[in-house]
Each structure stands twice: as C-alpha cells, then as structure tokens.
Amino acid sequence: MEAIECLKTRRSTRSYRTDPVPREVIEDIIDCGRLAATGNNVQPWRFVVVTDPAKRAEIARIAEYGKFIKDAPVCVAVLCENVKLYLEDGSNAMQNILLAAHAHGLGSCWVCADKKPYAPLLAKLIGAPDNFNLVALAAIGWAEKTSNAPKKPLSEVLDWEQFQMR
Ligand SMILES: Cc1cc2nc3c(=O)[nH]c(=O)nc-3n(C[C@H](O)[C@H](O)[C@H](O)COP(=O)(O)O)c2cc1C
C-alpha cells in the first residue's frame, strides 16, 4: 500500500475474526515500531506480543476500554524504560505499529495504558521490570468491522503562519 494512502485510510478496529496472524507479519509490524523516530535516538522501547488466549482474556479483563483484546488474535504491548521522553517515544512506535498493521491488511486499535491506574498491573502481568512503563496496548487482527469515526476537516485544523481563533 502506498504510504499516504496508508496514513489516510487507517481506522480503528474493535471487532476481529479469530484467524491467526502469521508470525512473520507480526515481526514485520514490530520491526516498523522499533524503527520509529525517538528522542536522542534512545530507543527506550520493548515490545511484547501476546497471542495466548488466556493471557489476552486476563489483559482484557483489566483494560477498561480494551475488552476486544480478548477476541483479537494478537495483542501488542509497547513498554518504554522510564526515560524523559518515554511517552512520546512509545506513542510514536505505537503509531508505526498501527500503520504497519494496516499496510499488511490488518485491523488494529490502540488501547490506553500509561494514564490508567492499572498500567503497572498490566506491565507486571507480562513480566516487565519496575523501570519500564506500559505506554499502550494494541489489538491486531483481521477486521470484522472497522470504525468510521468522524474526522475534522483540514480547514478546521490548519492555519498558515499564525494560529487563528475560530
Ligand atoms: C492515546 C490513544 C488512546 C486510545 N485509547 C483507546 C482505548 O482505550 N480503547 C479504544 O477502544 N480506543 C482507543 N483509542 C482509539 C481512538 O478511540 C480512535 O483512534 C479514535 O476514536 C479515532 O478513530 P480512528 O482510529 O478510527 O481514526 C485510543 C487512541 C489513542 C491515540
């Protein structure tokens, strides 16, 4: 898929088919995550891929807005060591992951973690040490249904040279 088309057509998926995703596809998606831009090239990230149904069910039970992780064949956890720009770096890696999944024809959805009180619990559940923060989770799989969340038009969000009050 052409890059600009990929950027413009990605949408969140919260309903998945159960068919497994080939391991090499998952690896390529994570490879795109680890190549993201990162402050001072620190690359503080680690990626944990969870496919085990019981573990996904446990993650889904804890993640308030990620119940669909139970049904998606793949859950990716993006963790970052507790450095200054960990949230920016981890978020950037996650966006690459969502886009790479879309380029492979897969659906995905970001699931909030860092700001949630249960983030440390989820990090512990997947075996992360205390100096790593769980930035976010992603559900990934073949899409059953994809969101059609409305987008603000470009004219509403773009200004040239100076911020315009609207
Ligand atoms: C930081 C962040 C946190 C999000 N957390 C969740 C979440 O916990 N659960 C969920 O279903 N979607 C979550 N989303 C997905 C957004 O709801 C979604 O991106 C938004 O509604 C726009 O829709 P789109 O992704 O289809 O363009 C999150 C997205 C971002 C960027």
Describe the protein in words:
This protein has six helices and six strands, in the order H-E-H-E-H-E-H-E-H-E-E-H. It has a single domain, classed as 3-Layer(aba) Sandwich (NADH Oxidase), CATH 3.40.109. It is α+β, with helices and mostly antiparallel strands and 166 residues long. The chain has helices at 3-9, 23-34, 53-62, 86-103, 119-125, 154-157, and strands at residues 13-16, 45-50, 74-81, 107-112, 132-141, 143-146. The mean pLDDT is 97. It has a four-stranded antiparallel beta sheet with strand order 2-3-5-4, sandwiched between helices. It has a two-stranded antiparallel ribbon with strand order 1-6. Helix 2 (23-34) runs antiparallel to helix 4 (86-103). The protein is 35% helix and 23% strand. The protein binds flavin mononucleotide. Residues 11-12, 14, 65-66, 109-112, 147, 149 line the site of flavin mononucleotide. Flavin mononucleotide binds next to strand 4.
List the keywords.
6 helices, globular, two-stranded antiparallel ribbon, 166 residues, NADH Oxidase, alpha+beta, four-stranded antiparallel beta sheet, binds flavin mononucleotide
Rg estimate, integer Å? 16 Å
State the total count of DSSP E strands. 6
The biggest sheet, with number of strands, parallel, antiparallel or mixed sense and barrel status, is: 4 strands, antiparallel
The rough form would be described as globular
Q: Could you outline the blueprint of secondary structure elements for this entry?
A:
Elements: H1 3-9, E1 13-16, H2 23-34, E2 45-50, H3 53-62, E3 74-81, H4 86-103, E4 107-112, H5 119-125, E5 132-141, E6 143-146, H6 154-157
Antiparallel strand pairs: 1-6, 2-3, 3-5, 4-5
Bound molecules: flavin mononucleotide (FMN).
